[in-house]
Design brief:
There is one protein chain. The protein has 160 residues and is an alpha+beta fold. The chain has two domains: 81 residues, Winged helix-like DNA-binding domain superfamily/Winged helix DNA-binding domain (Arc Repressor Mutant, subunit A); 68 residues, Dna Ligase, domain 1, CATH 3.30.1490.190. Helix content is 38%, strand content 14%. A four-stranded mixed β-sheet has the order 5-3-4-6, with no helix packed on it. A two-stranded antiparallel sheet has the order 1-2. α2 crosses α4 and α3 packs across α4. It starts with a helix and ends in an 11-residue tail after the last strand.
Length: 160
């Protein structure tokens, strides 16, 4: 994967730097991470790095098409690799867990929005808020298509 990152950076006229590689590695490991969480992860290996470098690097990596951000509630954007961006997020307002679903889970909605309104849906930015099965006290359905992100990596908590 690193070779692909290097090629994408060079092809867009940018140098491959240790800081950029560390940020990409952190985004890969953390999934749905805020810039501050990415900064904390990167600081484990690069103590002298400052948070503004992480923000600038994320902005550049998004322009190049290596990472993308999503909105999972109030607060900072959350970043993940662009190659893994096409999924829907279900965010529990009670516990903050995040469930990723394949785009096919909402294909009928996407089709209806296009057919009825001429609206093209950006599935990579589609987030649905509600209450997860665990918080509702019911079993998750058989169509559950993705793992819940652990609470520690989940979106900011919201008040009930």
């Amino acid at each position: 994967m690193s070779q692909t990152w290097d090629d994408a950076l060079r092809a867009s006229g940018h140098r491959v730097t240790p800081q950029r590689q560390l940020v990409l590695e952190a985004v890969t490991r953390l999934e749905h991470a805020t810039p501050e969480e990415i900064y904390a992860e990167v600081r484990r290996k690069a103590v002298g790095l400052n948070v503004s470098t992480v923000y600038r690097t994320l902005e550049l990596l998004e322009q190049v098409g290596l990472v993308t951000h999503t909105h999972l509630g109030h607060g900072a954007h959350r970043y993940h690799l662009a190659t893994e961006a096409q999924h829907i997020h279900l965010v529990c307002r009670h516990c903050g867990s995040i469930i990723e679903l394949a785009p096919t889970a909402v294909s009928s909605l996407v089709t209806a929005l296009d057919r009825d309104y001429g609206f093209e849906t950006d599935v990579g930015h589609l987030t649905v808020f509600g209450t997860c099965a665990r918080c509702r006290g019911v079993a998750a359905g058989p169509a559950h298509a993705g793992p819940a992100v652990p609470e520690s990596a989940a979106a900011d908590r919201w008040s009930r």
